[in-house]
Amino acid sequence: MEGPFIRIEDSGLVVPLRPDVTTVGRGRGVDVRLEDPSVSRLHAEIVRRGPYVYVVDMGLSRNGTRVNGRPIARRVLEDGDVVSFGTARCRMGGIPREEVDPDVELRRAVAPELTRREVDVLTALCRPALSDEAFVAPATARDIAGELVVTEAAVKQHLLRLYQKFRIPEGANRRTRLANEVIAMGLVRPLPPVHVPPQSRGPADSRQATGEFRRPVPPGVAHRAVAGRPANAGPGRTTAGTAGRRAS
């Protein structure tokens, strides 16, 4: 077969790469379809640029993409490389030999400096990308506000600053373009939300750096006494009576 191609090891099927972008995944609309539950519906793209071929993990799968056993975000491919999409293994062929260091990943521009709050907003924005749905839309400003317990106006202000930092021009699908940029740069690997009981939260988790991120406290909760303990006794304090009983 002339030109670069990818061979699916389980089936032996050989698929020639498209001249520009070849999509890989479990969905019906991709170019290389892999019937494996560990593969996302839109898992990765294989891109051709002149004589060079590189693979890009789309960041839409929990299982990621590996080249010769090493996890990657974006990497130049050589003839004979084994690319694993989740647990589905494929082998590259027909790639011309070039003086390219295979250990060097193609990276986009250097990421801008981000505050902790901006990272929180980007993580919430990209969280839907963990779903198994292809072409999933990023979170809305209202969704982000609900997750971070802030106002929608505050989230929009953060998004405006992020658009400027990542140089996302005005236009349609601006949030989607920002999310794609962040995921392609490997800046955000969102995790499923984890419920943490309020009593186990420490000072670092209280989001008190700014007033807009402070969780509302019902009236009277801060001064409510717990049975057998005075209202001002913290979790690590004991009354004299309790200490006496422990000593005995």
Automatic annotation (TrEMBL):
Domain FHA: 22-72
GO biological process, one term: regulation of DNA-templated transcription
Alphabetized UniProt keyword annotations: Phosphoprotein
Annotated Gene3D superfamilies: 2.60.200.20, Winged helix-like DNA-binding domain superfamily/Winged helix DNA-binding domain
Single GO molecular function: DNA binding
CDD domains registered for this protein in UniProt: FHA
Pfam families on file: FHA (PF00498)
The organism's place on the tree of life at top rank: Bacteria
SMART domains with a match to the protein in the record: FHA (SM00240)
Compositional bias annotation for Low complexity: 236-248
Region (Disordered): 193-248
Protein name listed in UniProt: FHA domain-containing protein
Organism encoding this protein: Thermomonospora cellulosilytica
